[in-house]
Structures
1.
Amino acid sequence: MSADKERLDRAIIAIRVAKELPAGSCVNLGIGIPTLVSMFVDDESVVFYHSESGVLNCGPLAEEGSEDIDLINAGGQFLQPVPGMAYFSSVDAFAMIRGGHVDVTVLGAHQVSATGDLANWMLPERGVGNIGGAMDLAAGADKVIVAMEHNDRNGNPKVVQECDFPLTGRGCVSLIVTDVAVMEPTPDGMVLREAAPGWTPEEVQGVTGARLIIPDSVAEYEV
Amino acid sequence: MTLARLDAQSVARRASAEVAPGSVVAVSGDWSTAVADLVPAEKGVWFLRAGGTLSDLPISAADAGAVLRGGNVDLSILQAAQVDSNGSFAGYHAADYPGPQGHAGLIDLAGARRVVTVLPHTDADGSPNIVNSLTLPPDGVRCVDTIITDVAVFRVADTGLILTELAPGWSAEDVRTITGAAVTSAPTLREMDFALPPGNPTSKIYADGPSAIADLPDGATVFIDGFGGPGGMAHYLLISLRDRGSRNLTIVSNTAGIARVVSFGTPPGHTAIDHSVLVENGQVAKAIASFPVSPSVSRPSEFELAYRRGEVDLELVPQGTLAERLRAGGAGIEAFYTPTGAGTLIAEGKESRVIDGREYILEHGLRADFALIRAHRADTRGNLVYRGTSRNFNAVMAPGARVTVVEVDEIVQPGELDPEAVVTPGIFVQRIVRRPDGFTGYE
Amino acid sequence: MAFSKLYDSAAAAVADIPNGATVLLGGVSGANAPTALVSALADRNVRDLTCVCDSTYYGAEALHRLVAAGCVSRIISPAPFGSGKDDMVHELWRSGDLTVEVVPWGTLAERMRSAGAGIGGVFLPVGIGTRFAEGKEIRVVNGVECMFEPPLRGDFALIRAARADGVGNLVYVGAQRGWNSAVVSAARVAVAEVDQVVEPGSIDPELVITPGIFVNRIVRANSAPIG
């Protein structure tokens, strides 16, 4: 029963996503698994981190005891000051995002559809939610990567044929990296690119809501 | 006998008499830019030049255009080639510059609240420059309020031109004979007065928070800055507003108060003051926000509880759209298309448009009665610098409110802030309050 | 090899600007002008460029060289002609060798800001009733008569700044900020000519005017004479 098979841990998801960040690119990381990605980018790549709190080229989190309320990331975490930062207002922060200057954003999601629709701002049962910067990132970043667990805590698939949660953006997701697989939404449907070690394509399909397009060769998850 | 006409310098002196202390004045053309040198610094006047300076502050061309459109310029003094009796004018370039459209240097400046043109009364061959109807292409239509020439001053009224002042030695009849439009003499017609308006600008410094918002009315729309945490949040003004008790407020802000319940951006061991103080005091009718509720379902904020009780309305706006709507409100942009939210709930009821193959939705500018913002330092003219990521929405909100009140750590004298470092020019700040010693922003 | 934005020469930094490109110029004269970059472009003898600039006169030597070399087929500017009748741009326009489009400067700056900020266009109240409203979509928004102004995007922006750090953060001096900072975000590739390149950390993050995200290439200004 594939649902019980061993899944990759969050750090492995982050390592896999880190491989998608080209040298010299500008990257915005969302809250949760996406935040872990920066730990696994090698120094040679010179990735520039953007935070919609109004700082570019930001560095690691501040150590306990040296928190500065005037230096936070979009998740409200405290940052260390590092050389090469620039501060700017919220309007400039989002001009960078919408204007296509942020090359890659890595976001979490509640659901992603077969054609790359993203739902990550509201759980319908709550009736109210926070959009924050998610819709701008979905609309503006050149490449939107979703990093998430393959199924929610009740086992429901998060990769679905059609989203039934309120959308953040249509057709905006370029790649999905989960604890089970790497998938690419396309206009024709969801293509399975890589499966976690020990998983067959059919087992991945078994825990996935979207109909997977399975190419002749599905690589093993590269880490 | 030929009557003496004023020289360019004297016309500029007469134009300087239109400049109120503390006002914001856009200038273009030699006769006009000379005005800036005639107004002493203690008058606190801001001069905007198209090249990208606002008095001693360098600003980008995009910001200069925004200042002009955004209703923050009190007066444009423009050198014209021709003005007509409807108050339309052609700029001083009009006759000299070739091409189908000539020169566009004055188009933006014509949008100021008040427009004064300066020009020679007649051109080199003696033909009148004040006419019934322009023969040159207009740079501004029905926008001129006052005309100052080298022989007279006119007010542009709905009924036509009113002659209000004469150069020394000139009679109304002398002026009429060289004017190409019908002119009525004002009952108060007098010799030209070159004196600067008396007085100095009123101080922007307020003694405390309550006095700075003493006239914030019920029903007001209020911009409240902050990204979500205590950094960049005007806690002292927030408490002052709670104590004043203004009700039925629409608050425009990134969050509607989350720091208190989830410690967003808050150092360990502290509880931050946030919008909740207004919500629990029953003062908020509506929030326009991008992150209105707690990220934790199990720790709901005051706003979410009030929302579930049906006591407050919510307009949910994506964060970048919120920032852009705030900028638009302050930059004289009535509406704009953004791709953000196309195809989602946010797009419902909004015009959508496909531009270059991509779907956009129409969003409108936001303005407010008051903005309560937070900066690190201000000089007495209202120029502001911020600290780190606490710049966030503060710098965006300042231009779009009728009254912007800033809470700062320190107030310094003009000249003490490096002009290259000023983020918010003082023209956008009406009131300054220093955060009291010992006030932390924590409960 | 580690990623770097620093180029060895102006020529290398403009080597891939193709015929037909739209080039946004941050300034045209004195300390406002990316003189080395524009001169290097003129040396390349490219054709059919559209140049967007704030004006074309008052010491615009490098731009004039570009125009005289026949590289430019179109100019978009609030002030494309000098007032002198012997103006080169004027003559080329009269002879039909140059297309000229006049745009009010605040509108021009806003159109470039839209391009850089991912905005699909704006409704502005500027120029209603004048020749600049002809042929435009006019609409009353919030009771204000406005015209639609679409984004203006460049393929390249050539700008001048005082200092850059290695990651492309820029500071300007005085009025240099005006147009240089307004055009930099609107192009696919922004090239900055700077007087000084400093180590990351040497520029106070509060003082950065153009964050490095907008800057793709950096060249040290050389003081080579023009002509």
Note: Chain A has a mean pLDDT of 95.
2.
Amino acid sequence: MKDINLLHIVISLLGIMGMVSLNAVLVVWLERKTAGRMQFRHGPMEVGFHGILQTLADGIKLVSKQLVAPSHADTALFIMAPVVSLVPIFVAMMPIPFSATILAHETDTGLLLVIALGLLNTLGILLAGWGSDNKYGLLGGTRAVGQILAYKIPLLLTVLTIVILAGSFSLREIAMSQNGLWNAFMQPVAFLIYIVCIVLETNRSPFDMAEAESELVAGFHTEYSGMAFSMFFLAEYSYMFVAAALATVMFLGGWHGPILPAPIWFILKVYFLLFLMIWFRWTFPRVRIDQMLMMGWKVLLPISLINFLITAVVLAL
Amino acid sequence: MSSGFKQIVGDGLRFKPLPVDKHGIHLAARTCASDARDALRKARSEGLFMETVTAVDHLEDGKLELFYLLGNYERPERTLLSILLDRSNPKIPSISDIFPGVTWHERETGEFFGIDFENSLDSRRLLLPDDLEGYPLRKDFKPRKLPPVGRSKPFKYEQASDEKSGFVLNLGPQHPATHGVLRVILHMDGEYVLEADPILGYGHRMQEKIAENMTYTQMLPYTARMDYLSALHYNHAWVMAVERLCGFEVPERAEYIRVITSELNRISSHLLWYGAFLLDLGGFTPFLHGFADRERILDLLEMVTGSRLTYCYYRFGGVANDVDDEFLKKTLEFVAHLRSRLPSYHDLVTGNVIFEKRTQGVGVIDRDTAACYGITGPCLRGSGVGFDIRKAFPYSIYADLDFDIPVGENGDCYSRYLVRMQEIEESLKIIEQAIENIPEGKIRSKVPKTIKAPEGIAAVSVESSRGNLCVILVSKGDKKPYRAKFRVPSFSNLSIFPKLARKELIADTLAILGSFDLVIPEIDR
Amino acid sequence: MITSYVHEIVRGTGSLLAGMKVTIKAMLSRTQTVQWPRQYLTLPQRFRGHIQLVPVESTGYPKCFACGNCARTCPSKCITVKGKKPEGAKKKSPTTFLLDFTKCSLCGLCVESCPVSALGFSKDYAMAGPSRQDFAEMDLLSSLASPFSTQASKEKDHG
């Protein structure tokens, strides 16, 4: 019995790795195409059909480049940081249900697991900022840490709202519970707050203060090149996928939908959310760090708290 | 004339009024080094702003002539204070405590001419490398052998000193937000900037010395390279300075063409700034939206001038080529097109809550500080002072045109932004009027092939996209200018940056830097 | 106070949506870039590329008579002209006409200074070379027929 479990985990991990890479290729392409079109450009056009293989070509170039570390860098941390950023993704992908049956590993506390692993991304950013002995990097790293609480608490409150609605921490059961009406319609406020929080969590514009290339050159990954840089890149797009998948499960009814098969629906919803995040990035200027904290504590937190209380009271009645 | 000068700098000072001609200086007087401080203190209390400080080397007389050029935001009036210094030991008390913004001008004049500004707040070199011997703008300067390529300005690391706690952040010379090779040394406390110290001169080419070695015509293409984003304004200032000095006439059609093209140039510069400013604030898309429309202007200007960026189009007594009806038709089409696009600019940026929060109340300049530092252009008009060369000293045909000078209310980055956006609309209005009224006729009057400007001095200002661009031309009747000083707007505008950046978040300092619309080669010259 | 708080949030969100409308509209509109080098834009008549010598139509020889006006006018001193009279001709013809394109600022003052309009602008903007030297001495005579070539070959025959 144990052997089968191990085999199961190995296979699903391999599947997830493939999934992560494929997703990165697609989302980066989508991002660059969208950005191009929003700016009256074509975006990548040369490699493959309408440039669809451009990311692959870039990836190959990055992998073949030399990894340069600054002379005073803390080499162990410097090399560890991208790994710490990327690896938790593989675990975080496991409890995500693509349909009622397709999921790598079901746990009763899948939601908590994914959210907890999401925090490790910030650790990776901090390690990168600290380890690379670069002031821009360090500023980026500290910014990422400084904003955690401001968005994690509202995020958890909205998640709790959904949990008390569904009565379970299991992602599969949360998705199952929305067979009729999606939570996005029952909990629009929670949905909006959650969208803001995942943009924050994935360090995406308008909340890309940790990267902030016009202020901090490239923030935490200023000193990274080649493979290590591409791992950060991969991590960013994978976290986007995980966060969007979680939002799909909690708010958009998971795999539920007419006509098309369940996994297709799931992927479509996830990519809709990813497109939304890309759309944000290519529309808004960057928020200042103190304004973001102000927004987290003064807007997101009270609203999510009130929303949570109202939901709890209504359910109790 | 002397009464006018008395009115400004007061009685009781020993000064000798200088002859004032029609070349852009309204009041001029000569005083001695010891009285200069009092005169300038009076000028400061009168609200005059310091346009520039510069000097001329009179080698044969053994004198250095130091100029203080003062402008007035309220009245069209330019005052020149001239002081003769002994060439062997030029010394004068610094006025950087009266006009804080003058420090940079003094540093520049000091290193170029070897004038010692005593008790200056800052006497480091500004543009030149520290190991340069001699004073390049003195007439007897003999350059050593050229330094090897790549060894122009040594890069020194700054260490945080004890009295300034925190750490030092080098912003530039290669940084995405410094738009060129500007380097700012920031003393930081966490995210806060304690002190900002801009280091200039990475793109310094000694244009003013080049001008002394070129004929008037040969200098023309160089002017476009100083501020490559408003090259036509530089062309304009240079040809106008020479025209005034030599008394050349410009046919009316040429004046209309100049106005149409230079307003197009202004719009293109503002559109690029719109994008670059938003890029500094982290918004990517406005940059290319601005670029897409700017591209149409470049196409239009390429049609008439043949080049897209560093135009060399105006000539003494006219312009190089005539415009045809197709250009005028297409320009009108462009005016309509840009008008239809502007609302989307405002939807994308102006109303955006993130943008408002990032720019409102950030980097506030008040009128008085502006006068101290000699701020001009949209940066000044954002502070509610309607000083625009096009209205103050109407040149070309601006006096006949109907347009407004937009001013802001708060003097913050947001006001400066709004002023520039409104200026685009005003420029469109100007272009429309000019095209409607453009007369037929010659585009170039007859000027001698070899230009020998008569002896004299001209100070001619043009409103460039960034502010008051003034060319001070001193001629001794030669084929080449004896001295050409470019008073560039970005130089004075940037000099206020250390003051504004103090105790601000790093994100805000970059918003401030972006809102100045700097072109570094213009500052470095 | 609470109303202004809510109002602020609603207004802010509205302004963000207005921005998103602009970008999505842009996304659905036509692109404005050209896929160079597969597509080209037509250059305007007055496009100022590097300078080139204009031939006399009937003979194909350069119009230039090596007066050197252009070389003197050039602010960057990047033109070298030498010339002599071909046998039996009234005017000089250039023997060397070199352009140091690494220094040229494409201002066009030389073209304007030419008394016989023997200089024009090329429309070739896509120039590339592996070394700087390729452009330091561009021989502008190479593309034209030379009044000396027959003479030179004659001399060779005699020699």
Note: The mean pLDDT of chain A is 85.
